[in-house]
Amino acid sequence: xxxxxxxxxxxxYGDHAAVDRLTVSVExxxxxxxxxxxxxGKTTTLQMIAGFVEPTAGAIALxxxxxxxxxxxxxxxxxxxxxxxxFPHMTAAQNVAFGLEMQGVGRAERDKRVADALALxxxxxxxxxxxxxxxxxxxxRVALARALVIRPHMLLLDxxxxxxDAKLREEMQIELRxxxxxxxxxxxxxxxxxxxxxxxxxxxxxxxHGRAEQIAAPQEAYERPAxxxxxxxxxxxxxxxxxxxxxxxxxxxxxxxxRWTFQRAPDGPLVxxxxxxxxxxxxxxxxxxxxxVRTRIFQGNHWLYxxxxxxxxxFVIRQNAGGAMPAEGETVALVWSAEHMTVRPGEAAGAGKGxx
Length: 356
Fold this sequence. Notes:
By secondary structure, the chain is α+β, with helices and mostly antiparallel strands.
């Protein structure tokens, strides 16, 4: 039995379905992210789990117990909001202790648990500081300590890192994952940041228009996207029109003059998806997809290229290994393996049989 189970969970506002028959199971100790663009239903889902929003239909069960009719303060959940929601007139220790006071925990045990929680998030020496004397990252840690100190059944995180600058956000991602692993608390994160979801999660629920487009481990969703939306939302990707044909037991995928062999592929027009970092440069030769480097951009640890080809513009990412790289205006061949390409039925753009 899953630790958390959402069964056909739905929330409607008039004719609009913010969440549409969402079914997700989460195992105990798992870190799962609800990922998607604004308006996809991820925050509404989190609020229904927390009890702040009443579902229109469907069920929520935690450890086998139905939660739909349980009041938010009785669900045993820890919540960290985007704004942190710290009390400005209270010190860090007083903010962390607030939930324990509401539970009637005795002073001695309360003080020990507050000290332990602050130490867990690296703020042992900041107990007497008010929020105004704490940095954004430190305030985020206080909010996390306050959520964890009550020993929740589950931790709910509503875009808790979005207010931090890029460098601090990356540092906090590492710390948040380390803390979650050390405590073992089942965690649900809402985020619109693909890199954040992939860095932190055991599994990702990619949402679009209130539904789950794919539920998978980060690498699986990235390498094997279940839909065009997932492929486009999780990082950069290339969609190339081509043609598939089956001859006996094998299938051939053609993109321009280039050919790949697949065990199975659509017959006729298809769309192939390949990530930019899976594409390498080679010298033009017979049967390669050739193009001209239109733009190259140096981004520190890698180069980002746009190459114009007979099947359209192709993005290429190559790591900066310090060697010579193709220049703008140079003719190159683009090569990649079949295992790094996914194909689905589609219409070839201006293509006849044998190429796009």
